[in-house]
Design goal:
Chain lengths: 341, 341
Amino acid sequence: MAAASEGQHRAPVMEDVARVAGVSHQTVSRVLNHNPNVSDRTREKVERAIAELGYRRNTAARSLVTRRSQTIGVLASEMSEYGPSSTLLAVQEAAREAGYFVSIAGIRDVSARTIQEALRRFTDQSVDGIVVQVPHDVIFETLRELSLDVPVVVIGAAGATGLSGVRVDQESGARQVVAHLIGLGHRTIGHVSGPRDWIDAKARIEGWRGALADAGLSDGPLVEGDWSAGGGYRAGLELAANTDVTAVFAANDQMALGLLRAFAESGRRVPADISVAGFDDVPESGYYQPPLTTVRQGFEALGRRCIEVLLAELAEGSRGATVVVRPELVVRGTTAGLAGG
Amino acid sequence: MAAASEGQHRAPVMEDVARVAGVSHQTVSRVLNHNPNVSDRTREKVERAIAELGYRRNTAARSLVTRRSQTIGVLASEMSEYGPSSTLLAVQEAAREAGYFVSIAGIRDVSARTIQEALRRFTDQSVDGIVVQVPHDVIFETLRELSLDVPVVVIGAAGATGLSGVRVDQESGARQVVAHLIGLGHRTIGHVSGPRDWIDAKARIEGWRGALADAGLSDGPLVEGDWSAGGGYRAGLELAANTDVTAVFAANDQMALGLLRAFAESGRRVPADISVAGFDDVPESGYYQPPLTTVRQGFEALGRRCIEVLLAELAEGSRGATVVVRPELVVRGTTAGLAGG
DNA sequence: CGACAACTTGTTCGCGCTAACATAGCATTA
DNA sequence: TAATGCTATGTTAGCGCGAACAAGTTGTCG
């Protein structure tokens, strides 16, 4: 009854449980590990003793002997951005539900050195598996030359590393937006991309190009942004000067917000004069002025699938699985046919 | 040279290093633990052997005997919001720099049960210290009745728990905004608050009330929002109907965004007819239309101070420290004196 | 009834490391 | 010179657990 071990300072160990239950410590271990060869009577006695003492198994001792830490390492850059942090939330939650601890390493500047450092800490910690969410070019070779001896799942860079991965089909998302714009009658569709060393930035450029090519249209102007609203604003001022451009696809919502402001200041009405579309569907985008047409990525689904893949590798030793989540176009108020026809 | 242990499958252990260096494994341990009683010659030999074998100390064995895990547990709700995730980034970075692993538990729904579950996992993991970032009322009693036996630092709820804490002075931030609005000549200043069970929401309400009282003004209308742009929008429609209100302080930037849209739709010009201020200074807020006047919280500083406090407790056993970070008013385009005087 | 299998439980060992103690070597002092 | 202290190193034990093996118990079948 009540929390035992009140006065004493040593947490109960397996041997203490064994004594109370009148069995050997190994039997306690068997109960804890759900070994089938324990009689119901014994199991109950042990469980009662565990409850009575408030016993909790020592993780360090357990991992020393099993050589597994019940820990998954998560390496992330941009962990305070909306998309990545949403995915992280799901990853971490799914891992915890599966009984794993989650060790996190968020890196601010992405380089081979910082990535390696973080991964080495994970091996020091002898994590059972690793999730990598670093949507930069540099991740490819860095991971390839590292050859970790635990399962690794890469978010956002599936396939190319030879490792397992999950990703949102960015190109498909971009194609959907651009096709939508083309369907509205736009013929010169600009793009404000993310920095070229980002994997997602490149995929969205490809999608934009692909959709235009499919429709027999030539590329509109491409301005490289920096994912920020400020970058979008500057790109917008530049694009506003070019009156041929009647639609702009921004590679994320923040840049789209910047575009909206730039166009407002330049006297180009959205969507009457020019259409704008974003990417990500951040929660605020429905309240931009006008509400933003954008692409919803399944961040939540992505994170959960990521852990599913990792758990499968942990359990079965399967490797190289690739999961692709399809994003969804969300049409709101920033896209329309041209006012004057 | 190069990475040794190529063909063999067992990672080198201390004994292997000892053999190569021609010393006992204990001497290797002493070198690793910077014990001063090791001669320079021996130290060098050992370090060479460590480098040659690529030896890395086994964390599990180490924590089994030291009873410390070199791990800090971080419990967070809202880990995908801008502010909390920025703080988390800093917390995690500072902890890692201090040589700690960071175990994260992000909870989606905040309740005594989920908090306790997460904290129990931390004790299972025998973390050396805990950081709690759960800005809800429920955290107070939950922590009080739990009495963990490791240092705990609470973010955003300093003082009240008897535990150490760091926080941004929310009330001061709110007072600064409201004083700014009063200075511009506003006399009826409304507030769109966060949900009442959030600590920050209450503090900002207090600040708003306090600044009004100091100026001899009575409270303007108070509408409870939900932190979201949609909530701000709905509150804005309600407030727009009341033409006495010439300024509104929103408890965060997302709600301010919603206000902006609601006022635009209601034909109330910002800032000519009505001023709007937010709180947080999210990166996009400078590109809202108009750019948002808001309060910048030192999320980064907060996170780093949090770990400083925790490390101090770990080192010296000091307890109950409270650090308060002062926020800063950022005046942009949504606040002004009234057009008509 | 005896031999054998299947189930249940106990005993021993070692995972890799640090703490505590033991020991050897050397310098210092009365 | 012997006693004393200090430094550098080695030896041993044990942290708490699970794997491997040993042993006891029950049931089954010829």
